[in-house]
Amino acid sequence: TPIFDELMKRTNTEIDFRWYPTDQYQDKVTVTLASDDIPDMIANASIPTLIDEGAIIPLDDLLEEHGPNILANLQEDDYPYMRAAIDGNIYAVPFILDFPPAYAMQIRKDWLDNVGISEVPETWDEWKAAWKAFKEQDANGDGDPTNEIPYAGDIYGLLPAFGINVSNKIGFTTDADGNYTIMYELPEFRTFLEEMRELYKEGILDKEFATRGTYIDNPELEKVCDANLAGSVMTWAANTRRTTEVLQELDENAAMIGVKPVQGPDGKQGIPSRVRVTPTAAITVAGEDKAEDIIKFFNYVFSEEGIKLMSYGIEGEHHEMVDSEPMLKSPYVDSFENAREAGLNFTPFPHLFAEEAFLQIMMGGQKYDEIPDAMKYFHDALYVGEDYFFTPTPTLNTEAYTEKQGEILPKIESLLAQCVTGEISIDDFYAEYEKLKPVGLQDILDQGAEAWSKISK
């Protein structure tokens, strides 16, 4: 693309890219490592696997000496995602999306109007009252008072309301003393179980919560939203725009809006922010002789000039300067597809994508008062929970986790579903949970805690 051509020109660099389909990509990496033709860098492969194969080199010293711009763009909360659990070293140059908001608690504003609730719920009691009204009063107005799902999707999005700050169903987090652990070990989790069991019994929770997916990757959740069945959800903020646009084709009053995260029984609330960094491209042993020059190249990519190039492209072609600020031009600002086709924010390649550039593309280059209501819902949903953002704790790929998580974690997930639906008691849940510790869970916890002590410094 013109942007990459310009980058190569500015840095006097030539890169021979080898592109492979994402399908079976990891297998292709394995075959490549077994060959005599190993590239200097490998992007988007499993870092733990590359380390285990002895295929890549640590970058800490190289970054300190030749990559000050890269390090300058890392924040304290980024390092647990950058460092490898096995030894605490950095092995990859990152992709950084400097845009914290991603998810939002959402509710159907028109449903609230339909059941006579004038204020958006905030406290736990207010949310339960709204959910109960959705359940009992034919909130979607289709004449069937039994098909509403007051809270649709999985239950993991409600965990922060109980002070359990996790961002996925795996559930690794830190306790009150900063120790790495899993959510089931926290005392607040019993309270969470008690409340979820009650909500399920009352018909407030999604009957398919255990199989509908997670709020991060949940096409089934989109389907129930589009079918006018979901009263509230916790998922990507973009869902507010998409759901509203779909439903307004039939009902102009339909509105899925973003609201502050649910405040739990003890007044706690939170919502995960976007993880800023993704370790992306590692230098292989074949590229070790070029490692210094490679880091110097990426040091330019993460310089002020390099960030501007990767985020806004070439002045006059992809953007123009307005009041000393770069403003993306059409068609590149019209959609993320157009931007990426031109080489802007090319995510397989390590770089930093600026927040303002993200916003310009997200809003199609329009100002807030120029965009339609559905887009405003999306914009507002991104920021309505800003005061409650927390940085998620990473899942650490220790040896025990890699070997035993496939057997241990699905069992816990199944126990959780059985407990919430009332098939087993809370005491039974914990009794069965404890039985998993001698067969691998304790090793996962112990090795995770040890690794955390290395990477969180």
Q: Count every helix, treating DSSP H or I runs of 4 or more residues as helices.
A: 19
* Biggest sheet descriptor: 4 strands, mixed
Q: What's the alpha carbon Rg, rounded to whole Å?
A: 24 Å
For the record, give the distance between the C-alpha atoms at the N and C termini, rounded to a whole number: 40 Å
Provide the β-strand percentage band: 5-15%
Mean pLDDT: 95
Which residue ranges are poorly predicted, with pLDDT under 50 across at least 5 consecutive positions?
none
Principal-axes geometry comes out as globular
By DSSP, the count of extended strands is 13
- Strand pairing plus helix content: what structural class? alpha+beta
Strand order of the largest sheet: 1-9-2-12
Helix proportion? 40-55%
Summarize the structure.
This protein has helices at 2-11, 25-33, 47-52, 60-66, 68-72, 79-82, 109-114, 124-136, 188-201, 219-226, 238-247, 291-301, 304-312, 336-341, 355-362, 373-384, 399-420, 426-435, 437-455; strands at residues 41-43, 92-97, 103-108, 172-174, 180-182, 232-236, 256-259, 271-272, 277-283, 319-322, 325-328, 352-353, 389-390.
